[in-house]
Design brief:
Elements: E1 3-12, E2 15-25, E3 29-34, H1 41-48, E4 56-61, E5 64-65, H2 70-75, E6 77-80, H3 92-102, H4 108-118, H5 134-146, E7 152-156, H6 164-178, E8 182-186, H7 190-196, E9 199-204, E10 207-212, H8 214-221, E11 224-231, H9 237-241, E12 246-251, E13 256-262, H10 268-278, E14 282-288, H11 292-300
Parallel strand pairs: 3-8, 3-9, 6-7, 7-8
Antiparallel strand pairs: 1-2, 1-4, 4-5, 9-10, 11-13, 11-14, 12-13
Helix pairs in contact: 3-4, 8-11
Amino acid sequence: MSILVESLTKMYGEQAAVDQISFKANQGEIVGFLGPNGAGKTTTMKILTCFLPQTDGVAKVCGFDTNTHSMEVRKRIGYLPEHNPLYKDMYVKEYLRFIAGLHRLKDPKNLVDQMIQRTGLTREQHKLIGSLSKGYRQRVGLAQAMLHNPSVLILDEPVSGLDPNQLIEIRQLIKDLGKEKTVIFSSHIMQEVQALCDRVVIINKGKLVANDTIDNLRKKVFVEGTIHVEFDKKVAVQQLKKIGGIIDVQTNNSKQFVLKSQAGLDIRPHLFNFAMDSGYVLLELSEQKPTIEDIFQKLTK
């Protein structure tokens, strides 16, 4: 595995910013790292990137311990922090060549040109970083994180400030990177987490509260299914309650209903048969799956 965290703890005085969390991340996997503000996400990422030492526990990247082999870890990791620390008085291309020099990369000119093209910075490459919009500064931050071709990428709010077109491009770039690298993706934009991540790790108040795929978390966190149904005529609530598997019926106008069903039971065929047998026309029949935002709120409130 590329990332191994075991019983990781970080204390500030008597307060545990990170409290004995454990998780793994493998090559070719995009892991969403989520939590409310102050949950300990950034602290964990700073430990993994050797910016902070842990108080206790183990953090390894590509088999190297962050405490005892920090230089080996740094060679193998690319990091985009939430507050992108760029040299705003440097030009984009000049800055990336400077980063290439820090990594002592061979053929830096060619590598920088490739990265500029890959991150969509061709038109901005001769501009001062300070003159760029927030979205383009994020692209520069991504470019510096990926320039040395690291095995692991840790991205803290990488899509912040991007417009819808840029969002699509960067999302695809992260997806492509996730096929060959390990990506830790932290964001408060839940739609991006749902679109990008194979698995999510959620922490709250320093403690691990979830580590699974979104589909599995839906089943674990929500014990009821939700169906939206609309008929062409009024239907009595008692009629619907007689259908097997329905445990609650909510309505405002006796035509549109929100039905709660037993977890894991698909009641849509029963509703279709009910409508056919009773002479009703179904205008809507849809299953509402809990979103990652619903899961997040349920686990962290």
